[in-house]
Amino acid sequence: MDRFLYIAMSGAKETLRAQTSNNHNLANASTTGFRANLDAFQSRAVAGSGYASRVYATDATVGWDQTQGALQATGRDLDVGIQGEGWLAVQGSDGREAYTRAGDLRIDANGMLMTGAGHYVMGDAGPVAVPPNSSVMIGADGTVSIVPIGSGPETTSMVGRIKLVNPPAETMVRSEDGLFRTNDGADAPADANVRVASGVLESSNVNVANAMVKMIELSRQFDLQVKAMRTAEENATSSAQLLRG
């Protein structure tokens, strides 16, 4: 009886974990450049005496969806979307280099180029600084050019280049801050083949319809596990009454 209860309890627990991950994806359905988590259930044999057929389920994140989100036009000069594979290099909250697909850039009061989440955008020699200007342009290769205040377009000058990288997808892991890093902690080398488009943003790649269906399925699975626990309790009560009789 205890194994029956344990299997039902563990199943409910792992279903809740899967629901948490799925809800996290749903919550980020409108987050720029978001990559959905991929989860999977796996069966595990119950250790100890008893029938070898006794198994319980575990849920684990097995990676992230590499599908590119749609590029949506914004018309804003500082919005960039990566075309195809690749990442923007930024400075994480821990000071280390990290990577993102979110290209909603802005310039702070100190003239530093940042993402919408507040991370400094990295260049060839550290964070990219943008001097006072009347306009800013970002080229397909990540070059940042400005027209100085009071000058005409003929005075356009390059002030930096955004570091664009493209390490193998299997070496990239998502950190708790939502940024990606290489699994060995090393900085990825710049890749001249990565291209960005200006005036667009990449949408999240979460499939909302699929995530909603999965949420309903997981909710029903959780209800079944709870019913199994109630059945285990009822069986235990009936057994105790028979022993007392």
Outline, from the CA principal axes? elongated
Strand content: 25-35%
- The radius of gyration computed from the alpha-carbon positions, rounded to a whole number of angstroms, is 25 Å
Average pLDDT metric: 89
Helix content: 25-40%
Summarize the structure.
The chain has helices at residues 2-27, 208-244, and strands at 37-45, 55-64, 71-73, 80-83, 87-91, 97-100, 105-107, 113-115, 122-123, 126-127, 133-138, 143-148, 157-161, 164-165, 172-174, 180-182, 195-198, 200-202. With 245 residues, it is of the alpha+beta class.
Structure, explained:
The protein folds into two domains: 104 residues, no CATH class; 132 residues, no CATH class. 26% of the residues lie in helices and 31% in strands. The chain is built from two helices and 18 strands. The strands form eight sheets. It has a three-stranded antiparallel sheet with strand order 6-5-14, with no helix packed on it. The chain has a three-stranded antiparallel sheet with strand order 11-12-13, with no helix packed on it. It has a two-stranded antiparallel sheet with strand order 1-2. Strand 7 and strand 8 form a beta hairpin. The longest helix has 37 residues. The two termini are 19 Å apart. This is Flagellar basal-body rod protein FlgF. Belongs to the flagella basal body rod proteins family.
